[in-house]
């Protein structure tokens, strides 16, 4: 069920078509979760600033049932910052990634929940 959301001030035309696929594969591997349950949302063209500057930046959110914790999050942060830097040219020091552990009972899917 992992869900990864990227809010960025990068324009939509600078987001490669392959970006969501690469995010899905890399996150699936890193998290040990099936790719078919991973949801990716990219929201480009946002009015954003980081440190008072409107240079390229991103605010990201990773939600998951399990697999969120101090050590795992360090791995995910490196992976995601590297991908955003490589694919969108956003410097790692202009990216925030917030991690959220969600209870299976609080995630609906396919007419029920994951609990």
List keywords for this structure.
2 helices; 25% strand
In words, what does this structure look like?
The protein has 115 residues and is an alpha/beta fold. It is built from two helices and six strands, in the order βαββαβββ. The mean pLDDT is 98. The strands form two sheets. Strands 2-1-3-4 form a four-stranded mixed sheet, with helices on one face. The longest helix has 19 residues, at 70-88. It has helices at residues 19-31, 70-88, and strands spanning 3-8, 39-43, 58-64, 95-101, 108-109, 112-113. α1 (19-31) packs antiparallel against α2 (70-88).
Q: Outline, from the CA principal axes?
A: globular
Oligomer: single chain
Report the count of strand segments. Answer: 6
List segments where confidence is low: pLDDT < 50 over at least 5 consecutive residues. none
- The total of helices stands at 2
Mean pLDDT over the residues: 98
Per DSSP, what share of the residues sits in E-state strands of 2 or more residues?
Answer: 25-35%
What order do the SSEs take from the amino end to the carboxyl end, as H and E?
EHEEHEEE
Largest sheet: 4 strands, mixed
**Which class of secondary structure composition applies to the elements?**
alpha/beta
Euclidean distance between termini CA atoms = 12 Å
**What percent of the residues sit in helical stretches (DSSP H or I)?**
25-40%
> Radius of gyration in whole Å, from Cα?
14 Å
Strand order of the largest sheet: 2-1-3-4
